[in-house]
Request: fold
Amino acid sequence: MSRLVMKFGGTSVADLERIRRVARLVAAEVESGKQVAVVVSAMAGKTNELVAWTDGAGAAAQGISPSDDEYDVVVASGEQVTAGLLAMTLRNMGCRARSWLGWQVPIITDDAHGRARIDDIPPEKLAAALDSGEIAVIAGFQGVDRQGRICTLGRGGSDTSAVAIAAALEGACDIYTDVDGVYTTDPRIEAKARRLSKISYEEMLEMASLGAKVLQTRSVELAMTYKVPVRVLSSFVEPGEATGAGTIVCDEEEIVEKRIVSGVAYSRDEAKISLFGLPDHPGVSKEIFGRLADANVNVDMIVQSHARTADTANMEFTVGKRDAARAVEIVRAAQKEIGFEDVTVDEEVAKVSVIGVGMRSHAGVAKTMFGALAEKGVNIQVISTSEIKISVLIDAAYTELAVRALHAAYGLDQL
Reply:
């Protein structure tokens, strides 16, 4: 008998009526002969409310460490409520179901509270429950460290929980969300966006990391590593209404017709930091980015160019907006030691990217991108590339124009 992990996000379980719809979808899969585990998020908005409560408790006094472990105890409670409500609803429908918290599975994590990573999921207890005909309703986003303390996996962590559990159970994973699949770009920006029937793990990983909000990045990494079949579906349908719909995330080899470009992603959560008059000698970049790494500031796009003054250079790099002020502070603290002239920050920028496994074997992808942007008068500030994506940094005011232009340039509205 095949095993299936069904994951439902916050909007899918936002109220009791939606939880009842989820229960009907789960019951339909059980009736079709599958062993089913369900992973749930907190109700929409609940995690934000819980985080606000922890903020309201005040900051730690000088010399006292932040209570990150107690923060996790509070914010993990949202998923506990949803798991209990869904299990109760399923029971009321005549299904055998029970709720499972992270420590009961157990989902074993490291001790990085608020951003923990899963180390192991012993499958024996869950497998035995499924074999007995029970529906396991599991609280997502949470696990337990080896000292027995609750740890949370970071925002979007329920996706990661679901894929990791599917890997442990050697089953498939259906991610139910508020969209009916993965689109060529954001349909809110481009009405001609098309739903993809299949997308490769690598393409989905790039899209997730570059701004697409459908799946959490770590969940895609896990799926790719353990070859977990993942399907993205809408939860706003009744059983049987959308048979064959959704997007399958799979190995590249399973996609018969490989597109040159599969999607256009964007992110407005970017800040560009510019350093002027850097000494142009070995070790300077190591000093700058070493300090940022030590402070857990993630740096993305980087470009360096010669300055007009001899033996000096200018450098630009991007960080997430929430890290911008801290990054500037870190760099300024090293100004005297490194010897650069000035640093500025620009938060009115956006990153727009084109992604596709077909780039590996087709020339001219960059030419098409740069031509389409030039035709619309969009200036490119920074460029970065990988084997299957090209990203550009542009003025944030041109984000939607750039997305629509690129979507048309690669014929994505014709898929």
The chain has 13 helices and 18 strands. Residues 16-31 form the longest helix (16 residues). Residues 64 and 130 are 45 Å apart (CA to CA). The radius of gyration is 23 Å.
